[in-house]
Amino acid sequence: MHEELENFERNHVYNLVEPPPNCRPIGTKWVFKNKQGENGMVVRNKSRLVAQGFYQKEGIDYVETFAPDSAGLCCLQRLQQMDVKSAFLIGFIKKEVYVRQPPGFESAKFLDRVYKLSKALYGLKQAPRAWYARLKTFLLKSGFSMGSVDKTLFLLSRGGDTLIIQIYVDDIIFGGSSHALVSSFAEQMSREFEMSLMFFLGLQIKQGPEGTFVHQAKYTRDILKKFNMGNCKPMTAPMSTNTALDADEDGEAMDQKEF
């Protein structure tokens, strides 16, 4: 909790103010989560301070809201994944937003004061849009061009090499034809934002001499655990090999060996 509060105060100037007339400050709450690694083991206990954005009214507290959602993955020879830490805390917001003091960390001297936000906060309706605007501005200034159809797809051409990145909310997957170009982009992003490697959309990507493979081992284990099938017997075939199928008398003849 203290680490998340430090992130909040670092990104939002510690600015407790008197609530202005007719101000309706948005409540805040703590959300706790156990973050799991690829093997399903808990690797980190997370706490996050979020705004109760469901109290915001469209047209009054915000105009538009959306989160960048990719249409697909880019599967190039060299793939990397990254997550922007506290992404929704670094987007700038234009409207004045006031939130109540975090529960358990209220100022004993100024109990009636509220925070005036200069940047977004998790839970605010406009937080995803503010983050996307911040990242898009950075990428365009860095020489990327944005997809004309998919606005979460960005392309950089340098010499004979190409770099493609795909955005999904606060996660980024990127790949290119040049290892140097991929590494340069990773370093550039790390200088601008606090980054970490992660799994993208619950997918794991394995690269080897045989090629690049995308799998969902962790997701599969979670589903089996959810339905108490963790000890079930694995099958190499997707259906029983002893099931008798009726012939389709009106259908075209097929080569069973090909099937």
UniProtKB/TrEMBL annotation:
<dbReference type="InterPro" id="IPR013103">
    <property type="entry name" value="RVT_2"/>
</dbReference>
<dbReference type="InterPro" id="IPR043502">
    <property type="entry name" value="DNA/RNA_pol_sf"/>
</dbReference>
<feature type="region of interest" description="Disordered">
    <location>
        <begin position="240"/>
        <end position="259"/>
    </location>
</feature>
<dbReference type="Pfam" id="PF07727">
    <property type="entry name" value="RVT_2"/>
</dbReference>
<feature type="domain" description="Reverse transcriptase Ty1/copia-type">
    <location>
        <begin position="11"/>
        <end position="240"/>
    </location>
</feature>
<protein>
    <recommendedName>
        <fullName>Reverse transcriptase Ty1/copia-type domain-containing protein</fullName>
    </recommendedName>
</protein>
